[in-house]
Amino acid sequence: MVSLAGTSWSFDKASAQLKEMCHLTVSDDTIERVCQEEGERSVAWLEQSQTPVRTFARAQGEVEFSSDGLKINTVDGWREMRVSTFIKRTPTSACAPQAWDDRVLNEPQVRLMSCRLADSVTVSQVIGLGAATANAFPGGVSDSAGLCASAPNAGRRRSNCHGFALGRY
Questions:
Q1: Which stretches of the chain score pLDDT less than 50?
Q2: Phi, psi of 3 (to 5 degrees)
Q3: To bridge 144 with a disulfide, which of 112, 137, 155, 165 should be the other Cys (CB 3.0-4.6 Å)?
């Protein structure tokens, strides 16, 4: 409950919400510490566990990748927060570009997501999906034929595409 509150609101607001909704008194510092600890455990699991690799491999569909980030001015200087997502979904019927606004894609069968905060060079070098990415694409993400990249803010519109180039959109 503490982790959910801490990832839903700022830590001070999470403290107030937990008090109001659950009658739990938890300081904002404790909520931050719990969220940081859970985040580290999640990163370790994603980087080391074979469960996401097997789940992703078993899922039906084509692989898609999306990533978006923003710059944050921290006490240690400017850093980048980047969310990266690999999904698999079964293809939807093809349509003309004029119909993309009305096209509804099939729901993903599986998602692998990662969010990292680091300096821009580090974030650019490492997508941050650990073993799952390495095993899904042994030659590296840039060598993955058949991977489809979708631009942020593109909504549910996309065309079928082949090949992949990591870059800014």
A1: 128, 131, 138-169
A2: -65, -40
A3: 137
